[in-house]
Amino acid sequence: MTDPRFDVTSLGEMMLRLSVPSGRRLETATQLDVYPAGAEANVISLLARLERKTRWIGALPENPLGRLVANHLRMAGVDTNGIIWQEKGRLGTYYVEFGAPPRGIQVTYDRAHSCASQLQPHEIDWDALLDTRLLHLTGITPAISPSCREIVDIAIHKAKERGVAVSFDVNYRMRLWSEAEASEAITPLTQGVELLFCSEADATRLFKCKGIMQDIAQTMLERSQAHYVVVTFGEQGALLWNGTEWSHEPARSTQIIDRLGAGDALAAGVIHGWLDNNLASGLRYGVTLAALALSQYGDMLVTNKNELMTLSQKSSSLER
Protein backbone atom coordinates (compact mmCIF):
# COMPACT_ATOMS: atom_id res chain seq x y z
CA MET A 1 0.00 0.00 0.00
CA THR A 2 1.47 3.36 -1.05
CA ASP A 3 1.61 6.37 1.23
CA PRO A 4 -1.04 9.06 0.68
CA ARG A 5 -0.04 11.86 -1.64
CA PHE A 6 -1.24 14.61 0.72
CA ASP A 7 -1.01 15.32 4.43
CA VAL A 8 -4.35 17.13 4.55
CA THR A 9 -7.13 17.71 2.04
CA SER A 10 -10.40 19.57 2.35
CA LEU A 11 -13.48 20.72 0.49
CA GLY A 12 -15.72 23.69 1.05
CA GLU A 13 -16.64 27.15 -0.16
CA MET A 14 -14.25 30.00 -0.82
CA MET A 15 -15.53 33.56 -0.87
CA LEU A 16 -14.30 37.10 -1.23
CA ARG A 17 -14.22 39.16 1.95
CA LEU A 18 -14.78 42.85 1.31
CA SER A 19 -14.05 44.94 4.39
CA VAL A 20 -14.24 48.66 5.02
CA PRO A 21 -11.31 50.29 6.80
CA SER A 22 -11.57 50.16 10.58
CA GLY A 23 -13.88 52.89 11.89
CA ARG A 24 -15.82 53.24 8.62
CA ARG A 25 -19.41 52.16 7.92
CA LEU A 26 -20.36 50.03 4.92
CA GLU A 27 -23.26 52.22 3.85
CA THR A 28 -20.93 55.20 3.33
CA ALA A 29 -17.86 53.26 2.16
CA THR A 30 -15.72 54.66 -0.64
CA GLN A 31 -13.22 51.78 -0.72
CA LEU A 32 -13.06 48.09 0.22
CA ASP A 33 -10.19 45.81 1.12
CA VAL A 34 -10.35 42.47 -0.73
CA TYR A 35 -9.34 39.17 0.88
CA PRO A 36 -10.10 35.57 -0.16
CA ALA A 37 -11.58 33.52 2.65
CA GLY A 38 -13.16 30.20 3.54
CA ALA A 39 -12.87 28.23 6.77
CA GLU A 40 -11.49 25.08 5.16
CA ALA A 41 -9.20 26.97 2.79
CA ASN A 42 -7.89 29.07 5.69
CA VAL A 43 -6.74 25.86 7.40
CA ILE A 44 -5.38 24.23 4.24
CA SER A 45 -3.44 27.31 3.11
CA LEU A 46 -1.85 27.77 6.53
CA LEU A 47 -0.78 24.13 6.65
CA ALA A 48 0.75 24.56 3.20
CA ARG A 49 2.74 27.52 4.51
CA LEU A 50 3.93 25.21 7.30
CA GLU A 51 5.34 22.93 4.59
CA ARG A 52 2.54 20.36 4.60
CA LYS A 53 1.25 18.85 1.36
CA THR A 54 -2.35 20.00 0.97
CA ARG A 55 -5.14 20.05 -1.58
CA TRP A 56 -8.37 22.07 -1.63
CA ILE A 57 -11.40 20.94 -3.61
CA GLY A 58 -14.34 23.19 -4.37
CA ALA A 59 -16.26 25.00 -7.10
CA LEU A 60 -15.16 28.38 -8.44
CA PRO A 61 -16.51 30.52 -11.30
CA GLU A 62 -14.37 30.69 -14.44
CA ASN A 63 -13.84 34.44 -14.20
CA PRO A 64 -11.34 36.91 -12.68
CA LEU A 65 -12.82 36.57 -9.18
CA GLY A 66 -12.51 32.80 -9.23
CA ARG A 67 -8.96 33.05 -10.51
CA LEU A 68 -8.10 35.59 -7.80
CA VAL A 69 -9.13 33.09 -5.13
CA ALA A 70 -7.26 30.23 -6.78
CA ASN A 71 -4.14 32.37 -7.13
CA HIS A 72 -4.06 32.98 -3.38
CA LEU A 73 -4.26 29.25 -2.74
CA ARG A 74 -1.39 28.65 -5.15
CA MET A 75 0.70 31.38 -3.51
CA ALA A 76 0.32 29.58 -0.21
CA GLY A 77 1.45 26.30 -1.81
CA VAL A 78 -1.91 24.52 -1.96
CA ASP A 79 -2.56 21.99 -4.73
CA THR A 80 -5.47 23.41 -6.74
CA ASN A 81 -5.88 20.65 -9.33
CA GLY A 82 -9.10 19.59 -7.65
CA ILE A 83 -10.87 22.90 -8.30
CA ILE A 84 -14.11 22.46 -10.23
CA TRP A 85 -14.36 25.42 -12.60
CA GLN A 86 -17.90 26.49 -13.46
CA GLU A 87 -18.84 28.56 -16.53
CA LYS A 88 -22.02 29.72 -14.79
CA GLY A 89 -22.57 30.85 -11.24
CA ARG A 90 -20.86 33.30 -8.94
CA LEU A 91 -18.39 33.63 -6.13
CA GLY A 92 -20.00 34.27 -2.76
CA THR A 93 -18.99 37.45 -0.97
CA TYR A 94 -19.28 38.87 2.50
CA TYR A 95 -18.80 42.36 3.82
CA VAL A 96 -17.14 43.23 7.11
CA GLU A 97 -17.30 46.31 9.32
CA PHE A 98 -14.81 46.43 12.18
CA GLY A 99 -16.40 48.16 15.15
CA ALA A 100 -15.09 48.93 18.62
CA PRO A 101 -17.39 48.25 21.61
CA PRO A 102 -20.27 48.59 22.02
CA ARG A 103 -20.87 47.62 18.35
CA GLY A 104 -18.39 44.88 17.62
CA ILE A 105 -17.77 43.36 14.20
CA GLN A 106 -20.63 43.34 11.67
CA VAL A 107 -20.83 40.77 8.84
CA THR A 108 -23.17 40.94 5.84
CA TYR A 109 -23.36 37.87 3.56
CA ASP A 110 -24.06 37.85 -0.18
CA ARG A 111 -23.50 34.19 -1.00
CA ALA A 112 -26.82 32.87 -2.36
CA HIS A 113 -26.60 30.79 -5.55
CA SER A 114 -22.79 30.61 -5.44
CA CYS A 115 -20.98 27.96 -7.46
CA ALA A 116 -20.17 26.17 -4.22
CA SER A 117 -23.82 25.92 -3.20
CA GLN A 118 -24.68 24.29 -6.54
CA LEU A 119 -21.97 21.62 -6.30
CA GLN A 120 -23.23 18.02 -6.67
CA PRO A 121 -21.72 14.79 -5.26
CA HIS A 122 -21.00 13.32 -8.71
CA GLU A 123 -18.72 16.28 -9.51
CA ILE A 124 -16.28 15.44 -6.69
CA ASP A 125 -13.16 13.42 -7.50
CA TRP A 126 -13.38 11.25 -4.39
CA ASP A 127 -10.11 9.45 -5.06
CA ALA A 128 -8.27 12.77 -5.25
CA LEU A 129 -9.96 14.07 -2.09
CA LEU A 130 -9.17 10.95 -0.06
CA ASP A 131 -5.56 10.47 -1.14
CA THR A 132 -4.55 11.95 2.20
CA ARG A 133 -3.61 11.28 5.81
CA LEU A 134 -6.34 13.59 7.09
CA LEU A 135 -9.55 15.05 5.66
CA HIS A 136 -10.57 18.38 7.23
CA LEU A 137 -14.21 19.50 7.09
CA THR A 138 -16.39 22.08 8.83
CA GLY A 139 -20.00 22.62 9.80
CA ILE A 140 -20.26 25.57 7.43
CA THR A 141 -20.36 23.55 4.21
CA PRO A 142 -23.44 21.43 5.08
CA ALA A 143 -25.30 24.66 5.87
CA ILE A 144 -24.81 26.08 2.38
CA SER A 145 -27.25 23.78 0.51
CA PRO A 146 -28.81 20.29 0.65
CA SER A 147 -26.34 19.02 -1.95
CA CYS A 148 -23.40 20.32 0.07
CA ARG A 149 -24.76 18.59 3.16
CA GLU A 150 -24.91 15.37 1.16
CA ILE A 151 -21.34 15.89 -0.08
CA VAL A 152 -19.98 16.28 3.46
CA ASP A 153 -21.89 13.20 4.63
CA ILE A 154 -20.54 11.14 1.72
CA ALA A 155 -17.01 12.44 2.29
CA ILE A 156 -17.02 11.33 5.92
CA HIS A 157 -18.44 7.91 5.11
CA LYS A 158 -15.95 7.32 2.32
CA ALA A 159 -13.07 8.50 4.50
CA LYS A 160 -14.00 6.03 7.23
CA GLU A 161 -14.34 3.20 4.69
CA ARG A 162 -10.82 3.94 3.42
CA GLY A 163 -9.28 4.42 6.84
CA VAL A 164 -8.67 8.15 6.34
CA ALA A 165 -8.74 10.20 9.54
CA VAL A 166 -11.30 13.02 9.68
CA SER A 167 -10.96 16.40 11.35
CA PHE A 168 -14.18 18.36 11.88
CA ASP A 169 -14.69 21.93 13.06
CA VAL A 170 -18.26 22.69 14.19
CA ASN A 171 -18.03 26.35 13.08
CA TYR A 172 -21.71 27.24 13.59
CA ARG A 173 -22.95 30.20 11.51
CA MET A 174 -26.25 31.59 12.80
CA ARG A 175 -26.88 33.51 9.57
CA LEU A 176 -26.99 30.23 7.63
CA TRP A 177 -29.28 28.13 9.84
CA SER A 178 -30.89 27.84 13.26
CA GLU A 179 -29.28 26.20 16.28
CA ALA A 180 -31.78 23.33 16.09
CA GLU A 181 -31.10 22.70 12.39
CA ALA A 182 -27.36 22.85 12.89
CA SER A 183 -27.39 20.53 15.88
CA GLU A 184 -29.50 17.94 14.05
CA ALA A 185 -27.27 17.99 10.96
CA ILE A 186 -23.85 18.32 12.58
CA THR A 187 -24.16 15.80 15.41
CA PRO A 188 -24.14 12.73 13.11
CA LEU A 189 -21.19 14.16 11.16
CA THR A 190 -19.03 14.35 14.28
CA GLN A 191 -19.41 10.72 15.27
CA GLY A 192 -16.07 8.94 15.65
CA VAL A 193 -13.95 11.62 14.00
CA GLU A 194 -10.26 11.84 14.85
CA LEU A 195 -10.22 15.54 15.79
CA LEU A 196 -13.28 17.58 16.76
CA PHE A 197 -12.95 21.34 17.14
CA CYS A 198 -15.64 23.42 18.85
CA SER A 199 -15.88 26.78 20.57
CA GLU A 200 -17.38 27.11 24.04
CA ALA A 201 -20.25 29.11 22.54
CA ASP A 202 -21.07 26.43 19.95
CA ALA A 203 -20.77 23.66 22.53
CA THR A 204 -23.30 25.49 24.69
CA ARG A 205 -25.70 26.43 21.88
CA LEU A 206 -25.67 23.28 19.77
CA PHE A 207 -24.75 20.54 22.22
CA LYS A 208 -26.18 22.02 25.45
CA CYS A 209 -22.89 21.62 27.30
CA LYS A 210 -22.63 23.15 30.77
CA GLY A 211 -20.10 23.59 33.53
CA ILE A 212 -16.38 24.31 33.68
CA MET A 213 -13.97 23.75 30.79
CA GLN A 214 -13.38 20.08 31.61
CA ASP A 215 -17.13 19.40 31.87
CA ILE A 216 -17.77 20.92 28.46
CA ALA A 217 -14.94 18.95 26.83
CA GLN A 218 -16.14 15.72 28.44
CA THR A 219 -19.70 16.24 27.20
CA MET A 220 -18.43 16.94 23.69
CA LEU A 221 -16.36 13.76 23.81
CA GLU A 222 -19.32 11.67 24.97
CA ARG A 223 -21.72 13.07 22.36
CA SER A 224 -19.33 12.75 19.45
CA GLN A 225 -17.23 9.69 20.40
CA ALA A 226 -14.36 11.59 18.76
CA HIS A 227 -10.83 10.43 19.51
CA TYR A 228 -9.84 13.97 20.53
CA VAL A 229 -11.85 17.10 21.20
CA VAL A 230 -10.42 20.60 21.21
CA VAL A 231 -12.63 23.23 22.82
CA THR A 232 -11.70 26.90 22.61
CA PHE A 233 -12.51 29.32 25.43
CA GLY A 234 -11.50 32.73 24.10
CA GLU A 235 -9.04 34.45 26.43
CA GLN A 236 -8.84 31.27 28.55
CA GLY A 237 -7.19 29.43 25.66
CA ALA A 238 -7.94 25.92 24.42
CA LEU A 239 -8.43 22.51 26.03
CA LEU A 240 -7.58 19.14 24.45
CA TRP A 241 -9.19 15.99 25.85
CA ASN A 242 -9.20 12.33 24.73
CA GLY A 243 -10.90 10.72 27.72
CA THR A 244 -7.69 9.99 29.61
CA GLU A 245 -5.37 13.00 29.27
CA TRP A 246 -5.99 16.74 29.48
CA SER A 247 -3.89 19.39 27.80
CA HIS A 248 -4.55 23.10 28.24
CA GLU A 249 -2.88 26.07 26.59
CA PRO A 250 -3.70 29.65 27.64
CA ALA A 251 -4.35 32.23 24.98
CA ARG A 252 -1.30 34.19 23.81
CA SER A 253 -1.10 37.92 24.37
CA THR A 254 -1.59 39.85 21.13
CA GLN A 255 -2.90 43.10 19.69
CA ILE A 256 -6.23 42.34 18.03
CA ILE A 257 -6.46 43.80 14.54
CA ASP A 258 -8.77 41.32 12.80
CA ARG A 259 -10.69 38.57 14.63
CA LEU A 260 -11.68 36.55 11.55
CA GLY A 261 -9.75 33.35 10.88
CA ALA A 262 -8.31 32.86 14.37
CA GLY A 263 -10.23 29.63 14.98
CA ASP A 264 -9.07 28.23 11.66
CA ALA A 265 -5.48 29.10 12.54
CA LEU A 266 -5.82 27.25 15.83
CA ALA A 267 -7.19 24.19 14.05
CA ALA A 268 -4.27 24.26 11.60
CA GLY A 269 -1.79 24.33 14.46
CA VAL A 270 -3.36 21.36 16.20
CA ILE A 271 -3.45 19.42 12.92
CA HIS A 272 0.20 20.33 12.33
CA GLY A 273 1.03 18.70 15.66
CA TRP A 274 -1.21 15.70 14.98
CA LEU A 275 0.68 15.03 11.75
CA ASP A 276 3.85 14.73 13.87
CA ASN A 277 2.04 12.55 16.43
CA ASN A 278 2.49 15.34 18.99
CA LEU A 279 -0.83 16.90 19.93
CA ALA A 280 0.54 18.64 23.02
CA SER A 281 2.84 20.65 20.77
CA GLY A 282 -0.03 20.99 18.29
CA LEU A 283 -2.16 22.76 20.89
CA ARG A 284 0.70 25.14 21.61
CA TYR A 285 1.10 25.76 17.88
CA GLY A 286 -2.63 26.37 17.64
CA VAL A 287 -2.88 29.10 20.27
CA THR A 288 0.26 30.72 18.86
CA LEU A 289 -1.17 30.78 15.33
CA ALA A 290 -4.52 32.05 16.62
CA ALA A 291 -2.72 34.98 18.25
CA LEU A 292 -0.86 35.64 15.00
CA ALA A 293 -4.13 35.55 13.07
CA LEU A 294 -5.66 38.12 15.40
CA SER A 295 -2.72 40.42 14.73
CA GLN A 296 -3.00 40.33 10.90
CA TYR A 297 -5.59 41.54 8.41
CA GLY A 298 -7.32 38.85 6.35
CA ASP A 299 -8.66 35.38 7.09
CA MET A 300 -5.76 33.46 5.51
CA LEU A 301 -2.80 33.74 7.88
CA VAL A 302 0.60 34.40 6.37
CA THR A 303 3.49 32.90 8.35
CA ASN A 304 6.03 30.11 8.01
CA LYS A 305 7.35 27.10 9.87
CA ASN A 306 10.42 28.84 11.30
CA GLU A 307 8.37 31.73 12.65
CA LEU A 308 5.89 29.35 14.26
CA MET A 309 8.63 27.32 15.94
CA THR A 310 10.32 30.46 17.28
CA LEU A 311 7.15 32.09 18.58
CA SER A 312 5.67 28.93 20.10
CA GLN A 313 8.89 28.12 21.95
CA LYS A 314 9.22 31.72 23.14
CA SER A 315 5.67 31.68 24.51
CA SER A 316 6.26 28.35 26.24
CA SER A 317 9.46 29.56 27.94
CA LEU A 318 7.79 32.77 29.10
CA GLU A 319 5.03 30.77 30.81
CA ARG A 320 7.58 28.71 32.74
What's the short version?
By secondary structure, the chain is an alpha/beta fold.
Radius of gyration: 18 Å
- The CATH superfamily is known as Ribokinase
End-to-end C-alpha gap: 44 Å
Overall tally of structural domains: 1
* Structural class assignment: alpha/beta
Which architecture would the CATH scheme give at its second level?
3-Layer(aba) Sandwich
Characterization of the model:
This protein is an alpha/beta fold and 320 residues long. The chain has one domain (6-12, 39-58, 121-319): Ribokinase (UDP-N-acetylmuramoyl-L-alanine:D-glutamate ligase). Helix content is 39%, strand content 21%. The strands form three sheets. Strands 4-1-9-10-11-12-13-14 form an eight-stranded mixed beta sheet, sandwiched between helices. It has a four-stranded mixed beta sheet with strand order 3-2-7-8. Strands 5-6 form a two-stranded parallel ribbon. Helix 7 (200-207) crosses helix 8, helix 9 (262-275) packs antiparallel against helix 10 (279-294) and helix 10 (279-294) crosses helix 11. The protein is globular, with a radius of gyration of 18 Å. The model has no long low-confidence stretch (mean pLDDT 93).
Show the helix and strand layout.
Elements: E1 6-11, E2 15-19, E3 33-37, H1 39-49, E4 54-57, E5 59-61, H2 64-76, E6 84-86, E7 93-97, E8 106-110, H3 126-129, E9 132-138, H4 141-144, H5 146-161, E10 165-169, H6 179-189, E11 195-199, H7 200-207, H8 213-224, E12 228-232, E13 238-241, E14 246-249, H9 262-275, H10 279-294, H11 305-319
Parallel strand pairs: 1-4, 1-9, 2-7, 5-6, 9-10, 10-11, 11-12
Antiparallel strand pairs: 2-3, 7-8, 12-13, 13-14
